[in-house]
Amino acid sequence: MSAPGTPGPSSAPSGSLTSPMSSAASAISVNGPSTPTPSTGSGVPVPPMPGISPTSSRRVTNRMTNRYSVNAMYSLAAEQDVEVEDELARAQKRLRDLKGRISSQSKKNFVLERDVRYLDSRIGLLIQNRIAADEKRQVQETLEEVVEDSGAYPDTRKIAQYSNLFFLLQSEPRHVAALCRLVQLSEIDTLLQTVMFTLYGNQYEQREEHLLLTMFQSVLAAQFESTTEFGSLLRQNTPVSRMMTTYTRRGPGQSYLKDVLAERINALIEHKDLNLEINPLKVYEQMIHEIEAEQGALPPSLPRGVPPEVAATNADVQAIIQPRLAVLMDIAQTFLSTIMESLEAVPYGIRWICKQIRSLTRRKYPEASDASICSLIGGFFFLRFINPAIVTPQAYMLVDGVPAKHPRRTLTLIAKMLQNLANKPSYAKEQYMMSLNPFVENNKQMMNQFLNSLCEVGDFYESLEMDQYMALSKKDLQISITINELYNTHTLFMQHIETLSPNDRQHLRVLLDELGPAPPQVPRAENASIELPLYSRWETPIQDLSTALMNDSVTQNDINFMETKSIFVQLLRSMPQLADRRPMDLPALAERAATSKDPVLVRRGIKVQNLLSELEAASVVDRNDNYKLLQDEVSTEMVHLGNAREKVVLETRSLESVYRTICDHNNYLRSQIEQYKAYLVNSRMMMAKAQGGVGGVGVVGINGKEKKFSRTQALGPYRFTHSQFEKEGIIMDSNVPENRRANIFFNITSPTPGTFIIALHFKGREKPILEMDLKIDDLLEKQKDNDATLDLEYVQLNVPKVLALFNKVGLLTLQPAERQLFAKRK
Predict the structure, then answer these.
(1) Residues near 657 by Cβ (< 8 Å), separated by ≥ 6?
(2) How far apart are CA 668 and CA 708, in angstroms?
(3) DSSP one-letter code for 773
(4) What gap in Å lies between CA 426 and CA 444, rounded to an integer?
(5) Please, what's the b/e burial string for 531-570 (b: 16 or more CB within 10 A of its CB; e: otherwise)?
């Protein structure tokens, strides 16, 4: 809502690629190196932000005059100084704190997930002793805790220089966008940590979010420019695709997935026995397995090991599959309807990226059909956002534990169906999916409409320009960053400085030249976090908002009107008992505040009385109509604030659930790290024991020298009942009838290091029902590939919990010592 005589904001043309001012750096010009006109990174010049030079308070561009509402600008600044303690203010504070905790916890989870992935890939090699000494040290360092007071901080001068550099990087996303296109794929995860969770880490702060999206715009524009084939756009595993996937895992994306998909997925996985497999070969194998179990032998007409085409023509297989197809399509339809109905809940940033994909495609490929463009949008929205959460809901914290075998397969098929629908279906690799083609045909048009609707969001350029402008008045602009993030970012920019900033007068080059060579990475234990203030050498902070806003069309009367309205709203919030009185008596409200015992209210009351007199003298408001214009605006604002409080409370409730889920996931990741720690501690103890010759000892010749080692002995058996495994969550799913489970038990032995036998027994029988030989590598590979299921035919076991059990009973503790000695002996 604008003050009288001031223009309201207008929207940029839909689909425009004109970026906002890359930084507030050109808002206020002071002595220092000149900066070339910023650009988006795609060659589109960016108009400078309106600003004030040190010698003139009147230098404001026409863009500011014609396109901005002084109301929005003033309200944005006024919010920073309001000291009102009403229910709305308290609710807003709780929400801000909660969002801050989610942002911080998301970063911790990102780091932990990366550590767990790394350790998953290295522990197997460590067990087999196929790992170099420096890699062993790296494994050990990954498990070290950070000592916050390690003393490894940069000195005061360096901190100031880094403050300047990171303000520039945050405020001018084109620099980071250019760097993201230059780094190796192996370097991108570390850079993404800094960009997504540190530089723009406040996931709910408008300015940071919009700056991050501006960076995406530059990266996507360059990706489209460099891609020569339409079919390969956004489909390869590149730094850009990794960035897009990482972006969807931030707080808003996680909140959306939980709100939209969690209930639907949990309802499905409750049906553990619902088998909807439609791959004819798998259906055939399951069928002959059941026949053999019932009859003891297979008839000649059902041979083993048939090719897929033979299985597909089997009449019994077709009869099994046909009703499953209808059920699958019904379930997929419910998922699709739920997703489409959630259009307005899709996070703004994800919709804006979809909009950029559509706009960039239309620019580069004007002849591309709407269906082809929608396939690219669907490739991002479904392939990188929706479907990974459907296929592995446990990794996205949507379910407790890993779904059982049949629901897990059903979720995979649903994801395939949605992807085929959204992404120009191709069934070349999976012929059996052709049976689900009616689902695609029936929903194709509706899907394209949905994908196009995703793109229908406004641009944020004007609000970002405002946010950048107002950032100059903030005294607490800062980021929480680790020392190694500082040094790593410094290193990457120095490596590519000639490409990023060839002109030695550009701000980026000036700051990096002053910083000099990047320091080496500090040990993990010394990698503490610091609160880095952000400020620029080339800008003057805004001291007087009124002076800064005034120009030929934004007059002192406009400023006075907005300030008067703002103070009356503050007074009503501080004295809520008066807020519902009608008609609203503004002079009486000001008098009551001016004569109260609260010094803050007194100051505001006296000030608003003076402002009201000035506005009346200037004929902006009229006492004779009881200041109706001002009354209407204050009343409207109060209604808006009341609605805002309800929205804040609802958003807080939703995000509290997200925060609990993120914390639960953090605890799970930490428990995995603790397992690795316990394993390494035990292995080092056993190494010392083996080399010290404790217990039964033998002597072998190694490189001409005698070496003592512990004799290898079979470990076990360790016995566990079916109910024990169920209670510990080791059994994910069981096909053993309920009345027989009490007679089932498991024996686990380790005949040689790294080798395990799990035997399933029935009480009273001498021989086991079945045995499975396992290598530690097999289990670790499953865990690395996010395949949590170990199928023992009658039961399915949870791989991470099996590993934890092996470690708990001591089956893993001897591996490094004995593997090392025997590897050398060979």
Answers:
(1) 258
(2) 39
(3) E
(4) 14
(5) ebbbbbbbbeebeebbebbbbebbbebbbbbbbbbbbbbb
Question: For 139, what's the count of Cα atoms within 13 Å in the CB-facing half-sphere?
Answer: 21
Q: For helices 87-128 and 628-692, give the axis angle rounded to 10 degrees.
A: 20
**Sequence letter at residue 114:** R
Residues 713 and 751: their CA atoms lie apart, in Å, by 7
SS3 state at 48: coil
Length of the chain: 826
d(CA 269, CA 750): 34
Question: Are the CB atoms for 52 and 549 separated by under 8 Å?
Answer: no
- Contacts with 527 (C-beta within 8 Å, 6 or more apart), sequence order: 146, 152, 482, 483, 484, 521
Q: Name the β-bridge partners of 481.
A: 530
What span, in angstroms and rounded, lies between the C-alpha atoms of 328 and 438?
12
Start-end of H helices in 618-733: 628-692, 722-727
Furthest CA-CA distance within the chain: 110
d(CA 144, CA 676): 11
Residue 755 confidence (pLDDT) above 50: yes
Distance CA 317, CA 280 (A): 6
Q: Identify which of 600, 597, 598, 571 has the alpha carbon closest to the alpha carbon of residue 586.
A: 571
Contact 759/746 with Cβ under 8 angstroms?
yes
pTM of the predicted structure, to 2 decimals: 0.64
The residues facing 775 across adjacent strands are 755
CATH class of segment(s) 260-337+355-454:
mainly alpha
Taking the C-alpha atoms of residue 408 and residue 791, their distance in angstroms, rounded to an integer, is 13
What amino acid is encoded at 47 in this protein?
P
Query: For residue 720, what are the β-bridge partners?
Result: 746
* Cα–Cα distance, 616 to 603 (Å, whole number): 20
Residue 376's H or E segment, with its range, is: helix 370-378
Q: Delimit the domains of the chain by residue range.
A: 260-337+355-454, 697-825
The backbone torsions φ and ψ at residue 767, rounded to the nearest 5 degrees and listed phi first, read: -90, 150
Report how far residue 37's alpha carbon sits from residue 174's, in angstroms, rounded to the nearest whole number.
Answer: 12
- One-letter amino acid at 540 equals T
Helix or strand (DSSP H, E) at 337 = helix 315-341
Find out whether 23 and 172 touch, Cβ atoms under 8 Å.
Answer: yes
Q: What is the pLDDT of residue 680?
A: 64
Q: What angle do CA 177, 42, 365 make, to 5 degrees?
A: 115
Cβ(460)–Cβ(356) below 8 Å:
no
The pLDDT-based confidence of 511 (bands split at 50, 70, 90) is very high
Rounded-to-integer distance, Cα 538 and Cα 147, Å: 36
Q: How confident is the model at residue 470 (pLDDT cuts 50, 70, 90)?
A: low
More confident residue, 645 or 290: 290
Q: What tokens were used for 500?
A: 């990023």
Q: Which backbone phi and psi does 308 adopt, to 5 degrees?
A: -55, -40
Q: To the nearest whole number, what is the mean pLDDT of the chain? A: 76
Distance CA 7, CA 623 (A): 25
What are the φ and ψ backbone dihedral angles of 520, each rounded to 5 degrees? -70, 160
Residues 6+ apart with CB under 8 A from 513: 504
Is 625 buried (19+), middle (13-18) or exposed (0-12) by CB count in 10 A? exposed
Mind listing the pLDDT tens digit for each residue in 52-95?
A: 233 333 333 333 333 334 444 444 444 444 566 777 778 888 88
Single-letter amino acid code for the residue at 348: Y
**Residues facing 706 on adjacent strands:** 701
**Side by side, which strands form the sheet with 755-762?**
715-721, 744-750, 755-762, 770-775
Return the structure tokens found at 695: 């217990």
| CA separation, residue 648 to residues 295, 310, 475, 656 (Å) | 64, 60, 26, 12
Residue 226, both tokens = 């460099």
d(CA 321, CA 790): 26
The alpha carbon dihedral of 233, 238, 244, 249 has a sign of: positive
Mean pLDDT value across residues 763-770: 86
